[in-house]
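Problem: given the chain below (116 residues), write out its structure.
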Amino acid sequence: MLNGDVLVEANDLAKHFAPEGRALWGRWMQGTEPLKAVDGVSFTISRGEALALVGESGSGKTTLGRLILRLISPTRGSVTFDGTDVCWRSGGRPCGPCASGCRSCSRTRWVPSIPA
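Solution.
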């Protein structure tokens, strides 16, 4: 595969949520360890390919989708869309949820699945 064929690339993507004293999915988090919703995910999607995320409830599928679309900020890792890093602004500052209409965000959409 040529590098120019890569449309989406995730590298060591992770999202950890803070534990103590915060409600997450209607439950109070206990302990001191962060909840690792996504940890160390890497993949590439070439032009014309599709990727299906399959897993049990709570395995991080939705969180991964939100990270790719920059609806939430990653704890670490990077996502590039058509050669542009969507997780970091110029100057090395992490992006938050995007509302700026930047090049990468204006070309992506969240399409939730609807069970048949």
